[in-house]
Amino acid sequence: MLFNSQEFVLGFLPVCLAGFFLLGRFAGREWALRWLVAASLFFYGWWAPRFVPLLAGSIGANYLLGGRIRAMIQAGRRRAARRWLICGIAVDLGLLGWFKYAGFLASALNDLPGIGLPVPRPFLPLAISFFTFQQIMFLVDLYRDGQGRDGQGRDGRAPVRLLPYACFVGFFPHLIAGPIVRPREIMPQFTHPGVALPQAENLTDGMTLFLLGLAKKLVLADMFARFADVGFGAAASGETLSLIEAWYAALAYALQIYFDFSGYSDMAIGLARMFNIRFPLNFNSPYKSADIAEFWRRWHITLSGFLRDYLYIPLGGNRRGALRQRANLMATMLLGGLWHGAAWNFVIWGGLHGGFLIAHRLFRRTGMRLPGVPARGLTLLAVIVAWVPFRADGLDATMAMLRGMAGLNGIALPQMIVGAFPALAWLAEPVPVLRFLGDARTLSFPEVSACLALGWGIVLFAPHVHELSARARGWALTGGFAFTVQALFFAPDVTPFLYFQF
Asked: Which residues are catalytic?
């Protein structure tokens, strides 16, 4: 079930909210939380019911493992606790590896001479990447908290109960595509005495954030998706794209994934707020970043924090010299790219960002600094170029897009543009239409240009939703509401969020 579907907006959400608060009022918090877990499992099973036992089993198994780790620490058996932690992480990663990476790994090995492995193709369970990371955080944090700073196991907190833990992992607003919330941030909120009692401020704020996120998805992200799909589809089919066609497709995809993920993050935060749960900020105007490190502090903030605290720092971080630090950065970003998908395109994307981060650190060591506008422009250029392999359908399509963006296939402009500005004939070849731009989607070149200019104006100069005052949010909500309703009820199909694929 998708947040942007009629079934969710008009059916599941109001029923889930009503049941949660009615049970909280008349039966107590425990029954309200049981309802929330059941509703979240129903939400998950709407897509593929056969994977509900996998999610429920994963929650139960990790909860039992967490209890075992805690018991070993309290008994002073730190080595045994560590073994149980390693076992739990191995099981979680093994499950993720089988479903998501077994086929990719077998295919990669079969490229070597003399290897003829069968290629398994298990069906990928929805959200397995996200709920696996959530539960690894739970196990690691439980072990770290139990160890204490001096390693003596001085954790005096009460044992974790199953019901708040099941809510922490399975809560539907973040279950499918994040944010990747931490146990200590969320579980105490589910045990708060007033969590299942309606609060008008949280309901109105949450609904506002949800509707603004829905507008980003339906009005902006899906519009730019149509432009991007034409150009990237042409590259995948072996067509030759001119400079402007390739750049327009790349610019459109950069806007698509921005508004898609920003919209989803706002919707998830808004949904959680309606249930009196506060999620951390997950998206903070990343295209305004002045360097690539700042970009990763603003883009998918919770994933960046996970990779830093549970991968980069355990690998050694910056504590073992400059060469080891660069190796740790590259390994972290390669694995972060692979987390997004089992394909070489995602590995290349992660490798590019690893290279950018290393180059950024080397440049900082020189003591030089770029001024604000050039720094932001260079960062944005690097991010857009790296989106190409992330979006393209294979390495051939990636190279086709990059050749077009480099101008190796020439420059073309519609005859109407060259006619209006004859001097452009020195640079561009006049053509009747640009085949792989808006002309294929009923919009003319000027109209597509205007849409891109509007999108980039929003992301580069407008404040993000969480910086707006309540009054400004109201104006934004009023402006986008009519378009959102029209898209929700009259769109030919429901487009999944991009991060649903990861």
From this structure: 340
